[in-house]
Amino acid sequence: xxxxxxxxxxxxxxxxxxxxxxxxxxxxxxxxxxxxxxxxxxxxxxxxxxxxxxxxxxxxxxxxxxxxxxxxxxxxxxxxxxxxxxxxxxxxxxxxxxxxxxxxxxxxxxxxxxxxxxxxxxxxxxxxxxxxxxxxxxxxxxxxxxxxxxxxxxxxxxxxxxxxxxxxxxxxxxxxxxxxxxxxxxxxxxxxxxxxxxxxxxxxxxxxxxxxxxxxxxxxxxxxxxxxxxxxxxxxxxxxxxxxxxxxxxxxxxxxxxxxxxxxxxxxxxxxxxxxxxxxxxxxxxxxxxxxxxxxxxxxxxxxxxxxxxxxxxxxxxxxxxxxxx
Length: 326
Prior knowledge:
Elements: H1 11-47, E1 59-67, E2 75-82, E3 106-109, E4 114-118, E5 128-132, H2 144-156, E6 159-165, E7 177-182, H3 191-198, E8 204-206, E9 209-212, E10 221-225, H4 238-255, E11 265-269, E12 273-278, E13 283-284, E14 288-289, H5 292-296, E15 298-301, H6 304-311, H7 315-320
């Protein structure tokens, strides 16, 4: 009878295997704990929205799609909207995100510094706001704490997040807030994401982040392309990922010569990239108000005149009019 095969492991090698197995178990448990917390957050976002009389979804009067001249298979969405009732008047100096004012729109506490509320006048269902609990200026830099809360929201549901940094970028409130909208509010892929995919990305790579540009855009912006940064999150890595996003944001502003944030800007974040665009004004071609969603691929207008104008105008031309040429 053949001798039995005996594999002898050194104590150090055996200890290494055991340590590796232990680490994998700890990582799995941390991810499960994080995912459970995100499931609770997702349920809160969805259930508190139902029959919430404090949320006034805009009436969609007309909607159309406008194709890009160079990319005929990509269309920007144009909506003509109206309010069901007059928007509440804002008192001078009042804070719409004060705890008492927004208590009926409150969803959940995200951290010691941030909370989640519904947009009182959402563009689409489940349009939510990530706000600082204490007042911070909308022109204050985005921080790791901001991105920490952003990552939680993006992990709870399939959201993309955007930020209007200043009046010229379309900010309507002085209190710092980021906005999150479900991807499925667009039919199919985001138009901006389709433009990113069609771009031949060239640029410098730093810490696994590629700093590049969207080919279709001839104005000052930075596209940060990354992998596995906003996915596979757990309580063990979310803080470090938040710091990485903050570093990416700082580097982008530096590349745009806007480190002191003297120029208004829009920031858009998905699970694959971050885009920062400098803004010179909010009003496009003296007619259309545009915030970060314009770069994502959606324009909202209030009148027939505006609606007809956007229908007959190249969307890129609209974006060119509110940005700085390169």
